[in-house]
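Whether sequence alone determines local backbone shape is best considered at the level of individual chains. The sequence in question and its structure tokens are set out directly beneath this paragraph.

***
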Amino acid sequence: MDRMVAIPALVPNWIGGRELAADGGDTLPKLSPHDGREICRLTRSHEPDVRCAVAAAVAAHASWSRETPIRRGEILYAVADAMARRRDELAEVVALETGKSPASARGETDGAVALGRFMAGEGQRMYGRTTTSGMADRYASTVRQPIGVAGLIIAANTPIANVAWKVFPALVCGNAAVLKAAEDTPLTAWLLAAIAHDAGVPAGVLNVVQGLGAEAGEPLVAHPDVAVLSFTGSTAVGRRIAQIAGARLARV
């Protein structure tokens, strides 16, 4: 059966609205879980590539954070709608990369679309809170504001769901993001970044870095301009992230 998605020979990074190879040109093989053959190559990013992605996110955050939450939600709803229209393509990539059955991949994709639509709706509900004060004739209130650049690191077991769980909440709240894709599922993150770009997410708001955890994930965790980190993965890696992030008091 012919594929719906044209698989690139090299899965690139997605930085500042552009597809980029690694600064040093390094690549890694992406092997099929079905038969072990090489499906494609993926970009093997290192610290310079991470720095480039974070710089793009910092630059984009200024204007993205000034958009109203409702407008950010509208853009992200367009992303979710585009995902729904391309549901079969996304599911095909998920099945290809993970070895899941087509039915399982479609179910995961549908869940990611539903999550995207729900989080887009949070743009209508970016509530603060008003409380009483210990001082007469005063009250206290909270206002929700973006944190800055979010570093997002995901696992490969549910790739499209993991991307949606992290990207949509980070963006609707006004943060820019750098997503470190799982090296076993680079195509899913690449395709979603392309869909988001085509649906109207401004360049630099969502950046994707491919590669290995020690070479691309760790520099993302250590970068001083990454204000908050969200990680899904093993306990051992989680401990390492907590150690690095804790040294600079980054939110995790």
